[in-house]
Amino acid sequence: MNDDSELSVLRERGAKGDGDAVDELIELAAERGDMDELRRLSDGGSSTATDQFIELATELGAMSELRRLADQSNTTAAEQLMGLTAE
């Protein structure tokens, strides 16, 4: 099975509420630095994905993404954004 089909299977399982599949998607996305996948999982309600997304966005200096989350009252994103703007 190739990576794309594995990801498709994991996404399908995750969409059906399989928490293990979501965890695996988060781990894979974090390893690959896949902001789009982490954003999708975060927007889907996964707090773990949100944490990973914030970490990656901070590493990459993705201020617009941190600002978007901060505007949604995410205090961690707001703190990271303040840290980046203070540098």
Spell out the key features of this protein.
87 residues, mainly alpha, 82% helix, 0% strand, elongated
Arithmetic mean pLDDT: 93
Residues in helices, as a percent range? over 70%
The class by helix and strand makeup works out as: mainly alpha
**What is the N-to-C succession of helices and strands?**
HHHHHH
Q: Please state the CA-atom Rg, rounded to the nearest Å.
A: 14 Å
The total of helices stands at 6
Unreliable residue runs: none
The percentage of residues in β strands lies in under 5%
| Major sheet attributes | none
The N- to C-terminal Cα distance equals 45 Å
E-strand count:
0
Overall form:
elongated
Outline the secondary-structure elements.
Blueprint (H helix, E strand, L loop, with lengths): L2 H13 L3 H14 L2 H9 L3 H14 L2 H9 L3 H12 L1
Helix pairs in contact: 1-2, 2-3, 3-4, 5-6
What does this structure look like?
The chain is an all-alpha fold and 87 residues long. 82% of the residues lie in helices and 0% in strands. It is built from six helices and no strands. α1 (3-15) packs across α2 and α3 packs antiparallel against α4. The longest helix has 14 residues, at 19-32. The protein is elongated, with a radius of gyration of 14 Å. The N and C termini lie far apart (45 Å). The mean pLDDT is 93.
